[in-house]
């Protein structure tokens, strides 16, 4: 076995899981940083992530990753245990993000088949130092005099912090159909012991007293947690209990001075007013700004309850599975075949003219189901943009720190869904646009204040469905594009091929998409190598999208990206040339018409043109272009289809139109693509009768016509 | 990690397939291709022409939902084109993860050729212009030309350029 081949399924899983965990980690850290508090739920999540990474890395013998995650785990074990008051959250987030980046890099190396040889000792020692500092400060805190109101809550040394004082109470009701509630309860207790030891339950004598079954039936089985575990963990754990009918979880603050041995039934019949569900609590708890160390008046409870709502993502993921995309592609191919096979059966020529009422009924039912399956399979491939958008949080954060700018990232419509293949193509362009916006567009806080703007700039990433397309906007409220500077630069680089007086603002702004254009004088780490915008444009165009830019000086810039919902299905017009069929994307078609013999002219170089409403358009004869034998060569026998792409309009000459339909786009076989890249063909598709039609790429045809 | 059972199966399959060749006719010449490359054999069917390709790549076909290119082996060997008839077959092969259909005049049989009966091809430029033949097999006095699949698919740079 090769040492690190990604063919190893265990390794595949390891890489996949850990990259997901790291993404989750990054998200939690950024959320916490924004809230300026590490909630106990978030601390739990981070701790668990690190614990998992440590475990799996040890198993896979990636010692350096394991070592680093161990150190971070230690740090969070301490934070979880003692909930120290922190003043400097950004130092903690920096350490975490650096740690995450280190592991990410190592994972990348492993994926590439290299050995993970990074050295994290520097990072580890700074985490150690941070932990020592925390411990020192924590010890100081505890020695410091405690304010009167808190005194009663302090339990024996160090074992309890405030978070754990908030007792968690769970009431379980079991299904009525099963008796022996006491046995079920015992099962729960038994399995709970794997999770935590710090809990008690009522009734207590379930093992020995069969009468408790009746009590549980009426009052429920009650569990009281005293330590550590977050409500989320407990809920997730308990909801898996067998035969569970109903589960109530509530957080209660016990009377002051209650000792560990206090028997739970003492406060069992709690008045319902006091029982607030964990969710109520979290939404009710307004997060106050974090108090500086040693501020005595802040009740400690508020800190421990700091925004438990921020990281619910950790527990939500259980309802998703990840599927290999290749399997989905196969499934889609199969469904495509199914649709064709279905029409081959129901439209079978041998059935023509027969009166088959029952058969037609059954055939209709079959068609309905196959159609639904096709829709479902398509929808499986659709994924929301939320991950792509959230990755930008990190970029914005890093750039703001480096460039000392203040930017707030606003996400709108991030649940808009796009085909998985497209997401892969637009992630980089969006990242580039975000970097560009911060680097070039958004001014430094001082400059913003001077021009009367809010010092914190807003960068909006917005996605929405517009017809069959998705529109993604990257909008900043920075200084806007500088028309003069763009023109100057374009002249310098000889990028202007038109009369300058004729150029509109829009034309000028679009110059930034030309290769080799960059207006930034200083090249920075993040952007400005002058390969940016044209690469963005090319990436977007490769998935059939378009990019445009709009800007107002001093008010900001908006870059709009239009992308198709899916690459897999397009609306197309089928045309016939000789024995071949071609599909023209409907989005490119303006009109189709039969030419009058008099309207066609030929220029001295032999280029044909057709006159339509006083405008001249070039004519492209498909049979000539693709060297196909056909009988229809006279202009008045065939049909002209006027198409437009990228401001180029011309007419395609074909034998006849066959009709419009939605087609599933397939790429040409890789072997053919390897032989040569055929300009003018975007792919192929299968028609209802099983024959193949070639999909025309109007842009490519225009280039070579 | 390889599952030991599947490994065993593939080994067994390799064993049963070793030394077996599918033979087919181009004109009067008998060619053979290792059976392990062959996926299936189908009759000739409607071929969709794709423009701008070399002459021997006839186009693409729809093989039960999968679109594969088809190559006319006759034209690949620079022999004159012959109209397809009901004996014409498409041999679907998978070579280095590429599925491709080979159009041949007719398919004859599967033969076992022992390794000692295979001799290297004569190094004559005329007889084996592009190295398509990797060996010559003798079966009961008959000569079968054994094809090198990878060479068949390869496109020499010069040939490639001449079409541009």
From TrEMBL, chain A:
SMART domains: CheW, H-kinase_dim, HATPase_c, HPT. The modification Phosphohistidine is found at residue 51. InterPro entries: Bact_Chemotaxis_CheA (IPR051315), CheA-like_dim (IPR004105), CheA-like_homodim_sf (IPR037006), CheA_P2-bd (IPR010808), CheW-like_dom_sf (IPR036061), CheW-lke_dom (IPR002545), CheY-binding_CheA (IPR035891), HATPase_C_sf (IPR036890). Residues 3-110 form the HPt domain. Residues 252-315 are annotated as: Disordered. Keywords: ATP-binding, Chemotaxis, Cytoplasm, Kinase, Nucleotide-binding, Phosphoprotein, Transferase, Two-component regulatory system. This is Chemotaxis protein CheA. The lineage of its organism: Bacteria, Bacillati, Bacillota, Bacilli, Bacillales.
Automatic annotation (TrEMBL), chain B:
Gene3D superfamilies: CheA-289, Domain 4 (2.40.50.180), SH3 Domains (2.30.30.40). It comes from the Bacteria. GO terms for biological process: chemotaxis; signal transduction. PROSITE patterns: CHEW (PS50851). One of its GO terms (cellular component) is cytosol. It comes from Paenibacillus mellifer. PANTHER family: CHEMOTAXIS PROTEIN CHEW, CHEMOTAXIS SENSOR HISTIDINE KINASE-RELATED. Pfam families: CheW. This is Chemotaxis protein CheW. Residues 18-158 form the CheW-like domain.
């Amino acid at each position: 076995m090769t040492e690190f081949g990604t063919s190893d399924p265990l390794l595949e899983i390891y890489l996949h899981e850990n990259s997901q965990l790291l993404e989750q980690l990054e998200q939690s850290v950024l959320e916490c940083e924004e809230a300026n508090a590490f909630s106990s739920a978030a601390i739990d999540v981070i701790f668990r992530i690190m614990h998992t990474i440590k475990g799996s890395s040890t198993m896979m013998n990636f010692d350096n990753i394991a070592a680093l995650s161990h150190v971070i785990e230690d740090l969070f074990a301490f934070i979880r245990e003692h909930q120290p008051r922190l003043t400097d959250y950004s130092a903690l987030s920096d350490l975490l993000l650096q740690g995450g980046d280190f592991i990410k890099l190592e994972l990348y190396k492993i994926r590439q088949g290299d050995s993970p040889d990074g050295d994290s000792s520097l990072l580890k020692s700074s985490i150690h130092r941070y932990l020592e500092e925390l411990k020192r400060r924590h010890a100081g805190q505890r020695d410091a005099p405690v304010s009167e109101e808190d005194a009663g809550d302090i339990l024996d040394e160090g074992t309890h912090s405030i978070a754990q004082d908030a007792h968690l109470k769970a009431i379980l009701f079991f299904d009525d159909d099963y008796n022996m509630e006491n046995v079920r309860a015992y099962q729960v207790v038994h399995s709970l012991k794997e999770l935590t030891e710090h809990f008690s339950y009522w009734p207590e004598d379930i093992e020995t007293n069969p009468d408790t079954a009746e009590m549980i039936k009426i009052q429920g089985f009650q569990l009281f947690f005293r330590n550590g575990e977050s409500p989320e963990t407990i809920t997730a754990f308990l909801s898996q209990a067998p035969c569970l009918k109903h589960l109530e979880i509530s957080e209660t603050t016990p009377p002051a001075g209650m000792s560990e041995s206090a028997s739970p039934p003492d406060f069992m019949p709690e008045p319902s007013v006091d029982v607030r569900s964990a969710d109520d609590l979290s939404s009710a708890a307004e997060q106050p700004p974090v108090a500086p160390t040693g501020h005595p008046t802040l009740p400690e409870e508020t800190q421990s309850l700091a925004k438990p709502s921020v990281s619910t993502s950790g527990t939500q993921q259980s309802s998703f599975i990840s599927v290999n995309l290749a399997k989905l592609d196969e499934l889609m191919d199969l469904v495509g075949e199914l649709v064709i096979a279905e029409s081959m059966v129901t439209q079978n020529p041998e059935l023509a003219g027969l009166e088959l009422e029952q058969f037609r009924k059954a055939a209709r039912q079959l068609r309905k189901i196959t159609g639904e399956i096709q829709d479902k399979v398509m929808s499986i491939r659709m994924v929301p943009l939320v991950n792509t958008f959230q990755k930008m949080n990190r970029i914005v954060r890093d750039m703001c720190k480096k460039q000392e700018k203040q930017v707030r990232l606003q996400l709108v419509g991030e649940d808009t869904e796009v085909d998985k293949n497209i997401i892969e193509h637009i992630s980089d362009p969006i990242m580039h646009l975000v970097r560009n916006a911060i680097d070039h567009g958004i001014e430094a806080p001082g400059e913003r204040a001077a021009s009367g703007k809010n010092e914190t700039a807003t960068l909006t990433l917005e996605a929405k469905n517009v017809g069959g397309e998705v529109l993604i906007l990257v909008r900043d409220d920075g200084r806007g594009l500088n028309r003069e500077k763009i023109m100057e630069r374009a002249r310098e680089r000889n990028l202007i091929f038109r009369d300058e007086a004729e150029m509109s603002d829009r034309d000028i702004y679009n110059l930034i998409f030309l290769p080799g254009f960059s207006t930034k004088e200083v090249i920075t780490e993040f952007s400005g190598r002058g390969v940016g915008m044209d690469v963005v444009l090319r990436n977007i165009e490769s998935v059939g999208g378009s990019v445009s830019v709009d800007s107002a000086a001093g008010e900001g810039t908006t870059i709009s990206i239009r992308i198709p919902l899916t690459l897999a299905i397009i609306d197309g017009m089928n045309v016939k040339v000789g024995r071949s069929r071609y599909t023209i994307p409907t989005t490119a078609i303006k009109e189709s018409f039969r030419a009058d013999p008099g309207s066609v002219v030929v220029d001295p170089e032999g280029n044909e043109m057709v006159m339509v409403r006083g405008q001249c358009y070039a004519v492209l004869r498909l049979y000539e272009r693709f060297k196909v034998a056909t009988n229809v060569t006279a202009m008045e026998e065939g049909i002209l289809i006027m198409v437009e792409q990228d401001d180029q309009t011309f007419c395609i000459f074909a034998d006849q139109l066959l009709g419009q339909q939605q087609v599933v786009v397939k790429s040409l076989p890789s072997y053919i693509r390897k032989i040569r890249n055929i300009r003018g063909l975007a792919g192929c598709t299968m028609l209802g009768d099983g024959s193949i039609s070639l999909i025309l790429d109007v842009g490519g045809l225009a280039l070579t016509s | 990690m390889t599952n030991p059972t599947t490994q065993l199966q593939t080994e067994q399959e390799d064993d049963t397939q070793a030394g077996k060749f599918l033979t087919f006719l181009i004109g009067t010449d008998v060619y053979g291709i290792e059976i392990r490359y062959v996926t299936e054999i189908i009759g000739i069917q409607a071929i969709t022409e794709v423009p701008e390709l070399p002459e021997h790549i006839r186009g693409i076909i729809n093989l039960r939902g999968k679109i594969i290119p088809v190559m006319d082996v006759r034209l690949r060997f620079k022999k004159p084109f012959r109209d397809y008839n009901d004996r014409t077959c498409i041999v679907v092969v998978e070579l280095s993860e590429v599925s491709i259909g080979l159009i041949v005049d007719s398919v004859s049989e599967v033969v076992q050729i022992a390794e000692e009966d295979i001799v290297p091809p004569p190094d004559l430029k005329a007889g084996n212009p592009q190295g398509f033949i990797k060996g010559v097999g003798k079966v009961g006095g008959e000569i079968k030309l054994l094809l090198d699949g990878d060479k068949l698919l390869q496109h020499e740079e010069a040939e490639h350029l001449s079409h541009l």
